[in-house]
Amino acid sequence: MSDDFDLKICCMGAGYVGGPTMAVIAKMCPKIRVCVVDLSQKQIDAWNSDDLPIYEPGLFEVVQSAIGKNLFFSTDISGEIQKADIVFISVNTPTKTQGIGAGRAANIKNCELCARTIAEVSTNNKIVVEKSTVPVRTAEAIRRVLRCNDKGLKFEVLSNPEFLAEGTAISDLMAPDRVLIGGSQSAEGLKAAETLASVYANWIPRERILTTNLWSSECSKLVANAFLAQRVSSINSISALCEATGADVSEISRAVGMDDRIGKKFLQASVGFGGSCFQKDILNLVYLCETYGLSECAEYWNQVVKMNDYQKKRFSEKMVAKMFNTVTGKKISILGYAFKKDTGDVRETPSMFVVRDLFAEGAKIHVYDPQVKREDMWMEMAYTCGISPDTDPKLDDAVVTSTDAYSACDGSHALAILTEWDEFKTLDYERIYKSMAKPAFIFDGRNILEHDKLRKIGFEVHAIGKPDPNTFDDL
Asked: Which has the closest alpha carbon to 112: 139, 83, 75?
């Protein structure tokens, strides 16, 4: 292996952000050596195999193009930090579950541990980059830890938040709307920011690489996700009004979205948003506002989360109500468990909350998702909802994971579309209808199906923000 590299990068954390980001940097910058490190041998082994630990369209091809050349995955954390010119911190910052700020504040323990490790093992000056989503002024904590090294080393801390959408992460990395780099406005800080900017400039136009101060960069990530989630909750609140009045939320979204001042993106009503970012970042923003005494601001942003919780609960309750107020003993098919299509990520997925509610009602649940593993379902449900086969032995028998949509729906009383996988649009619904108990219900939580055609087949169809023909006779 040649060691003739212009720059060496180490990324601490081999998860949803660190792995894909570093893989693309390696692919686009063959003269830069990139190594992703992690404490988990299992995670690193997966990255070094043909069965990557995460699913993302195009990721496998990107990894294969650079691995073993200038892209490496290792558990030798100390050795790789020592080699690196730039160290990225890309570790999990979950919402605190206990203590001060529990349920809202981000736990930055992992970021601090990374900083302490960097200070302990480094033998030369380095640029340290926050890639994790963190509260504003976390960089100051990292900087203070790094300054305490007893070797006289100097570290410049930058903020470089990710703006990836799961399912399109590779295209987002290859052609981003913007790359944001925040740093100290000193001569050293500006030089460090330029060093990182020059990495991205290998494939990204300079006009899309933005530089700010540290605090603006950290805050921008939280605000971006809060604004996107706010759009989802806004249209979902209107979906409830549409169902009550006979209006059609899709028609409203189209009419509103044609206004250039508003735009059409993120105006698709659904069962709710999920994923690792939206709720966590909004709650983080809520806690920050509370910390600085901005209670009205905190209440405003907290309502976005409350509306999302309401939408998920409303969907579950509607399923039970339409099915004669009971689902006890009935087979219910859940099509889609990931929080969105083209990913296997189940963190905060709306499907989980619907499954939890249906389980509480005594339903027999059959789940099909092309990318989600059963063990991941249970792990997230235990972490977020506090229930698992260990805490409730009935859960394992009540929830079946199916290998395909047709077997999941065979003999079912109802099916619910909870992830917008493309394959669900092209299923043979006549075949499914024949195999189901009657009346056969469809609950479209993503508004991706052709409802009129399904009704002609014989289904009773209920969708988000859509008028029910059984309720309104003037449509």
From this structure: 139
Q: Provide the pLDDT confidence category of residue 475 given band limits of 50, 70 and 90.
A: low
Place of tokens 């249970």: 378
Which tokens go with 386?
């506090």
What is the phi/psi pair of residue 129, to 5°?
-115, 120
Question: Which one, of 7, 32, 23, 1, lies nearest residue 90 by Cα?
Answer: 23
CA angle 299, 301, 302 (to 5 degrees): 60
Average pLDDT value for residue range 21-43: 97
- Which listed residue (111, 114, 277, 409) is catalytic? 277
107-122 pLDDT, tens digit each? 889 999 999 999 999 9
| Neighbour count for residue 117 (Cβ, 10 Å) | 18
Q: Please say if 277 is a catalytic residue.
A: yes
- Cα 298 from Cα 366, distance rounded (Å): 39
